[in-house]
Design brief:
With about 350 residues, the chain is an alpha/beta fold. About 40% of the residues lie in helices and about 20% in strands. The chain folds into two domains: about 130 residues, Rossmann fold; about 190 residues, Rossmann fold (3-Layer(aba) Sandwich). A seven-stranded parallel beta sheet has the order 8-9-7-6-12-13-14, with helices on both faces. It has a five-stranded parallel beta sheet with strand order 2-1-3-4-5, with helices on both faces. Helix 4 links the parallel strand 4 and strand 5. InterPro entries: CheB-like, CheB_C, CheY-like_superfamily, Sig_transdc_resp-reg_Me-estase, Sig_transdc_resp-reg_receiver.
């Protein structure tokens, strides 16, 4: 006998969306839709009775909004949840709040008027549901404020940091940047995220970091103390222009099914910065970033992968480890310190008195 299908409860106030999502998921032999619910109160009773493996949860519902229900659920009965969100500025903010509260992932609301795209949407939704069933949940409750590393010094200007992530990455990146000092080396970031969400994501990171975090702009110079998030739907590369690094944005084809792609960023950093770079590949589904991390290691950069125990999904970092791309495999709480280590060593060497001095 094969593995048991993933049992899913679909929670949405729209009867049409409940029917559509149920049909799309039910078309996958690895998924069984065990029930639907029109609001969180009905969902609560069905969770107790049906014991689903995964819930798809509408962000906006009557009687109790999806975010409030999610927080209650994660406090009382943690389980994998995929948020179903509108691709709007308000939807982005609520969805990022949901990921912070413990949701594994999110999908856009299905566009019922675009029949041709429903097959692709259904396949993507089914993939996320099956992945969520294996994800680690229950440890995303608010934690103590992370320890923030002390200042590095002016020698951080000669280093470049690069971070890539996907599923579970919005919170992982927030934790890493939350430990960075205000004068950390310039940092470039790719998180797989829709175009409507990336500006809100950058603003959220900026609020939780002593660095200045912005969405990257084309030809923008990379400065110490600043972090640059790839816009959703556009590749981010680093290039040399005179004596400085700059951002380059591109609309060329997706790589590893993603735009922005971590591989694209990492390979450009390997070419532009080489051994002056440090890179970390964090939690995420698939293999994007593994080949790029290997290119960085071959160029002499310090390369880090998040370990399996602290990853929501150990797809991307696991693929990098399998390739031999990661010089170090560390828990999430140690990633920032390891990324900063070469810059600190630069500063210590510069501060040391000359031999015989």
């Amino acid at each position: 006998m094969g593995p048991r299908p993933v049992r899913v409860l679909v929670v949405d106030d729209s009867a049409l969306v409940r029917t559509l999502v149920s049909e799309l998921l039910g078309a996958d032999p690895g998924i069984e839709v065990v029930g639907t619910a029109a609001d969180p109160y009905i969902a609560r009773d069905k969770i107790k009775r049906l014991a689903p493996d995964v819930i798809t949860l509408d962000v906006e519902m009557p009687r109790m909004d999806g975010l409030t229900f999610l927080r209650n659920l994660m406090r009382l009965r943690p389980m994998p949840v995929i948020m179903v969100s509108s691709l709007t500025e308000a939807g982005a903010a609520v969805t990022l709040d949901a990921l912070a509260a413990g949701a594994v992932d999110f999908v856009a609301k299905p566009r019922i008027d675009v029949a041709r795209g429903l097959v692709e949407y259904g396949a993507r939704l089914a993939e996320k549901v099956k992945l969520a069933a294996r994800a680690r949940v229950g440890h995303a409750a608010p934690a103590a404020t992370p320890h923030r590393e002390g200042p590095i010094g002016h020698h951080s200007t000669g280093r470049l940091l690069a971070i890539g992530a996907s599923t579970g990455g919005t919170e992982a990146i927030r934790e890493v940047l939350g430990q960075m000092p205000a004068d950390a080396p310039a940092t470039v970031i790719v998180q797989h995220i829709p175009a409507a969400f990336s500006a809100s994501f950058a603003e959220r990171l900026d609020r939780h970091s002593r660095m200045a975090v912005t969405e990257a702009r084309d030809r923008q110079p990379l400065l110490p103390g600043h972090a640059y998030v790839a816009p959703g739907g556009r590749h981010l590369r680093v290039a040399r222009s005179g004596g400085q690094w700059i951002c380059r944005l591109g609309d060329d084809a997706p790589v590893c099914h993603h735009r922005p792609s971590v591989d694209v960023l990492f390979e450009s950093v390997a070419a532009a910065a080489g051994r002056d770079a440090c890179a970390a590949l964090l939690t995420g589904m698939g293999e994007d970033g593994a080949a790029g991390l290997l290119a960085l290691r071959r160029a002499g950069a310090l390369t880090i992968a998040q370990d399996e125990a602290t990853s929501v999904v150990w797809g991307m970092p696991g693929a990098a480890v399998a390739l031999g791309a990661a010089a170090e495999v560390v828990p999430l709480r140690q990633v920032a310190a390891r990324l900063l280590a070469p810059a600190r060593e630069d500063g210590a060497a510069a501060a040391a008195p000359p031999p015989g001095g």
